[in-house]
Design goal:
Elements lengths: L8 E2 L8 E6 L4 H9 L7 E7 L5 E6 L2 E6 H4 L3 E4 L3
Antiparallel strand pairs: 1-6, 2-3, 2-6, 3-4, 4-5
Length: 84
């Protein structure tokens, strides 16, 4: 399936409380390694739990683990939003 056909958006743009499936990670190998170590890898379901004031950080849940990400890092993760 072509990535553009499924309407990817960045994790940073996923609405509060919404869930999505990770389809893309940044091209930066260091960042990819860090994201995979945190459990953020292709095919995993992620949920936006909270956004910090001014949008600099967001809290996401992967499985039973909550992770804080900088908005800039979250913007480099492509997700397909799941139906509610």
């Amino acid at each position: 399936m072509d990535e553009q056909d499924i309407g990817l958006l960045s994790l940073n743009d996923l609405p509060l409380g919404a869930r999505g499936v990770i389809h893309e990670l940044a091209d930066d190998p260091g960042l990819q390694s860090r994201m995979r170590a945190l459990g953020l890898c292709h095919g995993r379901i992620v949920q936006v739990v909270r956004r910090v004031r001014f949008g600099t950080t967001l809290q996401v849940r992967v499985g039973n683990t909550d992770i804080a990400l900088r908005a800039g890092e979250a913007a480099l993760i492509g997700v397909e939003q799941l139906a509610a």
